[in-house]
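Progress against Task 2.4 (sequence-to-structure conversion) is shown through the following example record, which the project officer requested during the mid-term review.
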Amino acid sequence: MYGWRGRVGLIVPSSNTTMEMELHEALPEGVSLHTSRMPLREVTEEELIKMSALAVESARLLRDAQVDLILYGCTSGSFIGGIDFEKEIEEKIEREVNTPVITTSSAVIEALRILDAQQIIVITPYTNDINQREREFLESNEFEVLDIRGIGIVENTKIGKLEPYEAYRMAKAMFMEEADAVFISCTNFRTFEIIEPLEQDLGIPVVTSNQASLWLALRELDVMEKIPWLGKLLTEF
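Structure tokens generated for the chain above:
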């Protein structure tokens, strides 16, 4: 049986081409991934909020696969309306399908806290408007955002075409000695290949949307397997 250690139900934007691939690459033996999608082409505030209204229907389809956990796999889609908005998404889905729910944004917050990160650098593929919403969300969770920079992409499929080295180079250019961690945001931004070398080069933990999502999903399933090539988060915690 696939998923004998646990089944993760993943909800992603329809235009996301990265998250499933990265998670499949890293999932421990015995953990399976089952995906449902929500319509989204452009990463704008209006489209992200519209997409979130369809989350419950996507979750109902995953319930039919008897998943043990539902992961709302969109960073901007879970922080866009603020701290209460993210919690409402979790509660609404959980109430409807009677299955534990986490969001990528909640996973990132938990990851940064367990790494004892207070002052962070944030790298995104987003526009300035979306970056401002992300700054507000992180600061409302009591993190100090030393710097946040994006690439300014609206079309989500273009984000999925970015090479991992783009995030690596941005992090190196933005690095500050006072930073406790680097956070690379967006589940459609490919990062798994550069987490370990970036941590080695900067000397601080690196958190990415997909890495944090995987970490929290495995913790919720009580699968405590270490994945060293995904950095400190999946090695020591």
